[in-house]
Amino acid sequence: MRLVSLATLCALTVGATAASAQVTAVVTRSDAVVHFNPAIDKSHPGGVQTFTGTNLDSYAVDSAGSGASYQVQAQLQPDQIDFADGSASLGAFSYETSSTAIDITFTNDGSTAVTPRIASTIVPGGFGVYVANNGACSGNPVTGCPGAGAGRTFATMVRPPNAPTGNDLAGATIDVNISADGQVIEHLTGSIIVEQNPLDRANPVVLANISQLAAALSNFRLVTPANSLSAIGYQWDLTDQLLTFPTSFGKLAPGASATLSYDTTVTSWTRGLCNSIDCAPMAYSGFGDPIGKGGGATATVPGNFALGGSVSSISGVTFSRFAFGLPQFHDGLLLFELPDTTPDAPVPEPESWTMLLLGAGLIGGLLRRRRVLGYA
Fold first, then answer.
1. Is residue 192 within 8 Å of 231, Cβ to Cβ?
2. Would 149 be classed as within a structural domain?
3. Does residue 162 form part of some domain?
4. In a domain, 129, yes or no
5. Looking at the DSSP assignment, which residues form a beta bridge with residue 29?
6. What values do phi and psi take at 156, rounded to 5?
7. Into how many domains does the chain fold?
8. Which domain holds residue 205?
9. Cα-based torsion angle of the residue sequence 291, 296, 302, 305 in order, rounded to the nearest 10 degrees
10. 349 with 329: CB under 8 angstroms?
11. Which of 124, 125, 207, 221 has the CA that lies 20 to 30 A from 300?
12. Is there a domain that residue 83 lies in?
């Protein structure tokens, strides 16, 4: 199920330079939808809450302890486009989906027809499911929950009696779609679902649809131990792309305009109960370094997450904010990327890293090419 309600937030004509003069409008939109058990959340029709705005960063909980958190932003600023998209769900009956859209209208003001190309960036991100200790949450009661300790595994969970039809205990999806005038240039989607095995409760089923993401995203990797019974999560690094508009789009004639749409949707849901009061399924999907495994978004010291581990290295979920440069169109190339900057000082050792860093690599302790983008 995908619940999306888009609202126009802002529009701007960009005309600062010759290149940006060919970009005639930028429109951004964002939303978040939360769904709880309607038998418990009786204050909202069907248990559904919808939020729209330029910068959404909050959470909702029901009286039974289920919760959903969202951080979603697609906001046009004078010199950049602020972006965030994160979703997290916790408990017996929770569903959350967040969506952003950025529409860029550009015009060929040259004298010859061109085949447009786009130099774009897919920012780092991750998604997954883990068994959370909901009795030790700090700050945000959803994203602030650490991983549970020994004996707390997916096998100890059951689906609540009023859950929707199915066997799923928890799941997360991510969807990135880049299109031009409705024609798809690139569409990436992936999902992770943990299901209760009706024939063997001790062996839950994990369904990971990750082939598209693995093929397209830089350093796409599993960040939890293989075959863990307590957590499964994947992450990727910042990925630069050079994409050509589809052949069916044809050439952009002199004076003609087109609109490129950059859309993201992240979804998380949980449908499980644990056999103890300090245990709950947790699902997350979003951009940044959600569970602090390092590489690409947040510089941290990776922990050791043992199978059914006695101590969890997942301290909670943190999504990141990013800032795209204002788009430019020149000589057939639409540039829509994260801005590059050059640092003035060496990057500290990993133990002292406290800032969110987006980088292309470390060379001799110096970050030669860095993309510094906001905060978590």
1. no
2. yes
3. yes
4. yes
5. 8, 101
6. -90, 5
7. 1
8. 8-344
9. 50
10. no
11. 207
12. yes
